[in-house]
Design a protein that fits this description.
- Keywords: Coiled coil.
- This is G domain-containing protein.
- By secondary structure, the chain is mostly helical.
- It contains five helices and no strands.
- The chain starts with 7 loop residues before the first helix and ends with a helix.
Length: 231
């Protein structure tokens, strides 16, 4: 008889030479000769000891090594039990306490995870709001740029039209001047019959002026083409 883990099964193995189950944990492998077990209460264990002592007393059987009364044996058993303590129960209580702490840690972990999720959700919402604001600002800037570009195109078109009108006017003036010079040349040709020398001078002057007018017309056309390319 002894508390769980005292070595009862090992003792039986060495005494009888038989192979018996030897536990290495907190569960008892003996039946009827243990104390402080986990499958029955302490009261049942004491009752079993009392019945055993009563039976051998009725049969007038003396237990070797017992010189005191049965009450002393029971008292000694209780004393040993109290000294050893309820190891299994204490461990079970420790396991229960540990399990409770683990549950508390799990709850705390879940709360932290939930808080982290909420924090992350808030951060994502804030980032999304900032992104939407930046997108709206970019769209507004793009619209403003578009309006500015359209205004610039309109101004350039107006400038081109103005330059084109001026160029057309100058071209008309040059054409009129060219016609005037042609008329002068015709008059000079007629006068040539009267004065050949005067006609040659007039013809040379006319040719020079005509070339000058043609160069001006060409320059004007080139300038108009450049203005058109710029627009």
């Amino acid at each position: 008889m002894g508390v769980t883990g005292a070595g009862k099964s090992t003792f039986i193995h060495h005494v009888t030479g038989q192979k018996v189950g030897v536990g290495h944990g907190l569960a008892s492998h003996t039946i009827g000769v243990r104390f402080d077990g986990i499958s029955r209460s302490d009261t049942e264990g004491l009752k079993e000891i009392a019945v055993f002592l009563s039976q051998i007393y009725k049969k007038n059987v003396q237990l070797k090594g017992i010189q005191e009364s049965a009450q002393a044996v029971v008292d000694q058993t209780i004393e040993i039990h109290e000294e050893n303590g309820k190891a299994k129960l204490k461990i079970l209580e420790a396991k229960a306490e540990l399990k409770k702490k683990i549950q508390q840690l799990q709850i705390a972990q879940e709360e932290m995870i939930q808080e982290s999720k909420e924090t992350l959700a808030n951060e994502l919402a804030s980032q999304r709001k900032a992104f939407e604001e930046r997108l709206a600002e970019a769209s507004e800037a793009q619209e403003t740029l578009k309006i500015s570009f359209e205004g610039l195109v309109e101004r350039k078109e107006a400038e081109y039209k103005k330059l084109l009108a001026v160029a057309i006017t100058e071209q008309q003036q040059l054409t009129a001047a060219l016609k005037g010079k042609a008329a002068e040349f015709e008059r000079a040709r007629l006068e040539q019959l009267e004065d050949e020398e005067s006609f040659q001078e007039a013809q040379a002057e006319f040719t020079s002026e005509v070339q000058s007018l043609r160069q001006k017309l060409k320059d004007q056309e080139d300038m108009m083409e450049q203005q058109k390319l710029k627009v």
